[in-house]
Amino acid sequence: MIEAVTGAFSFIGRAIADELLRRGREVRTLTRRDAPADPRAERIERVPLQFRDRAALVRALAGADTLYNTYWVRFAHGETTFERAAANTRALLEAAREAGVRRVVHVSVTNPSEGSQLPYFRGKAQAEADVAAWGSHAIVRPTLVFGPRDILVNNIAWGLRRSPVFPIAGDGSYRVQPVSVEDVATICVDAGEQARDVVADAAGPETLTYEEVVRLVRTAVGSRSRIVHWPRGVVLVFARAVGMARRDVLLTADELTGLEASLLVSDHAPLGTASFRSWVAANGESLGRSYVSELARNFRPYDPS
User: Fold this and answer.
1) In degrees, to the nearest 5, what angle opens at C-alpha 115 toward C-alphas 94 and 119?
2) Count of CB atoms within 10 A of residue 219's CB?
3) CA-CA distance, 188 to 105, in Å (whole number)?
4) Average confidence (pLDDT) over 182-186
């Protein structure tokens, strides 16, 4: 039985592929990058993820029992827009139907809303509607996902290691509920094995303020950086300057708005079990040793269409 996973050499898709392999499944990834040096490469069948080539997309999904879809975009960049991401998701779902895929597990986000002012959360809600209309499905809504080589927590650590000050927008009391990428993968694969339709939040056991997250990381990496509270506009200018220096996008205004609204918190009992506090303490030595670029990971190596 073949399980199809988008982005098995990226972040959440990688964890899902690992969980499927642990359960003895055959994994095929639809990917926009090749990773011959990845230790998983010999165990995972690789096919290109080509949204514009419908026939190739159907062939890529042929014989797959379940599609685990992690595809989305964090922000609009160049020709890549949220509207394009939504259209690509619909193309993927249509190809899955044509290929005879039995079930779709779709990775979304907590608190999506078609009425949201934030395109990310609005687009996620629209994609969920397409998945729900598709057929047998599970929708998994992660909060703030942490794990090896994640972008947000790693780059907080990177900044704390290198800057004498670390700015937080406003009072930093807005909340997040971190969940480990391994927990997200387990929740996704468990949902894929069910027959009924599922909508589930993937949240960890701890709800923290954003400032608490930064202070936990600061302690773990042994930083002496001074945490300062700046107006959001000043923080965004600072983030833009760092992003330009790194040829990346560090933080967008919409992302900060989502954080300030505590959208990465679930109202449901947590399904994740891994403690963020414990993970950060155990991984402080390696956190933030190098910068993780969103553009390098998800834009530059391939055609963004």
Assistant:
1) 65
2) 14
3) 7
4) 98
Token pair, residue 28, equals 């095929």
Q: Label residues 230-249 b or e (16+ Cβ within 10 Å = b).
A: eebeebbebbeebbeebebb
CATH number of 2-143+180-202: 3.40.50.720
CA–CA separation, 209 and 178 (whole Å): 10
53: CB partners within 8 A, 6+ apart: none
| Separation of alpha carbons 188 and 200, rounded Å | 9
The widest CA-to-CA distance across the chain, in whole angstroms, is: 56
Q: Which residues contact 240 (CB under 8 A, 6 or more apart)?
A: 250
| Tokens matching residue 231 | 């107006």
| Amino acid symbol at 12 | I
pTM exceeds 0.90 for this model:
yes
Q: How many CB atoms lie within 10 A of CB 71?
A: 20
DSSP string, 201-243: EE--S--EEHHHHHHHHHHHHT--PEEEEE-HHHHHHHHHHHH
216: which 2 tokens?
């936990």
Q: Is the dihedral of CA 279, 280, 284, 289 positive or negative?
A: positive
Q: What is the pLDDT of residues 148-170, one digit of tens each?
A: 989 999 999 999 999 999 999 99
Name the nearest CA neighbour of 204 among 177, 232, 227, 231: 177
Residues in the chain: 305
Closest CA to 215 of 166, 282, 272: 166
* 200 SS3 class: strand
Q: Virtual CA dihedral for 182, 260, 295, 241, nearest 10 degrees?
A: -140
